[in-house]
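Take a look at the protein record below and flag anything odd:
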Amino acid sequence: MSDLESEYEVGYGKPPKRTQFKKGQSGNPKGRPKGAKGFNASLKREMEREVTIREGGREVKVSKAEAAAKRFLAKALNGDMGALKTLMQFDADLQAKVEKEADQAAQVTAPDQTDEDVLAHFAMQIREGGFDPGGESEPGHVGDEEVDP
């Protein structure tokens, strides 16, 4: 053994000096060829290619990514809950808007006094046979009679 090897302890993670990479020399001399691309690059390139789809009775050229988005949205709009849930996860603003509209729809608002007066007037007109579909009479007035709200 040479003096360098006798001073250097060989063991786990410490290969012999003669088998280690030389300075300036790559551990993978052939490496990845320059023209070779990864999966993500291939997927991106394929999603950018155009396809012809039928939309509204006419043929339109769109990218494959756009065609996939259109199909995905169509599934969500047709009631596919999985697609709708995924769509809302993609767009946080859309999710917040849908939740807000659902909350508003769920709130049952009690009719106010004006609504009650109109309904009472309408019910009285029907009972008395004085209902005018043209709407010429005003709430509170049926002929010459006055109705107490």
Summary: Strands lie at 50-55, 58-63, 141-142, 145-146. Helices lie at 3-7, 39-48, 64-77, 81-90, 92-106, 113-128.
